[in-house]
Amino acid sequence: AKQIMIQKIREAERDALYDEFIAERGTVVVGTAQRNEGSVVTVNIGKTEAILPRSEQMPGEIYGPGERIRALILEVRKSGQRLKIVLSRAHPDFVRRLFEQEIPEIAEHIIEIRGIAREAGFRTKVAVSSIDSKVDCVGACVGVRGSRIKNITDELGGEKVEIIRYNESMQVMIPNALAPAEIEEVQIYPRMGRAIVLVREDQLSLAIGKRGQNV
């Protein structure tokens, strides 16, 4: 009877934590690295522990015990009598939440993030638009002398973050996204979900980007 009581209490505690953290899924938490087990980092996030798997870490990052970790709550699930919380620093939504925290106009919905393409640790491109014609969406995200974007890149360990002006027209949007390469012509094939981009020979490698990141 005692064992059953203990089991029920543990399950009730797990369920209460589950309800609390499932509501926080997709938000950013700050925790402390506890230990490394293989390539998995166990992180104390207050009321419980979470894990940061290798697949959700950024390349080259190493965490010692007691180090501060800022990460996205990616997954929350029940596992027996325990709660399993998976964190991520590699997910595009981690960048989205950092933008919301650092740039008031995004938190206030004056500027909207329309799309994010990310290769964690190397490069992120963020397409933004503004509902207020007086607010320059790119300038607001970059900040005075790059102050706002610097805070985000510092958190991402120097990962390059590029802000792109979103446009409903793919004829405009694709050249924006492929900058700094100069685009000669864009041919759109909506039914196939494809586009052919024509560039000069000297712009080809720039348009493709290092390890194909631009395309």
Explain this structure to me?
- This protein has 215 residues and is an alpha+beta fold.
- 30% of the residues lie in helices and 33% in strands.
- It has helices at 2-22, 92-102, 104-107, 137-142, 147-155, 170-178, 204-208; strands at 28-37, 40-44, 49-52, 68-79, 82-88, 111-119, 123-130, 160-165, 185-189, 194-198.
- It has a five-stranded antiparallel beta sheet.
- Strand 4 and strand 5 form a beta hairpin.
- The longest helix has 21 residues, at 2-22.
- The protein is elongated and about 75 Å long.
Can you tell me the overall shape?
elongated
Q: Report the total helices.
A: 7
- Please state how the strands of the largest beta sheet are arranged side by side: 3-2-1-4-5
Structural class comes to alpha+beta
Give the termini distance in whole angstroms.
Answer: 63 Å
Evaluate the radius of gyration. 21 Å
What is the arithmetic mean of pLDDT?
91
Assembly annotation = single chain
Helix fraction? 25-40%
> What is the N-to-C order of secondary-structure elements (H for helix, E for strand)?
HEEEEEHHEEHHEHEEH
**Main β-sheet: number of strands, strand sense, barrel status?**
5 strands, antiparallel
Strand content: 25-35%
* Low-confidence parts: none
Number of strands: 10
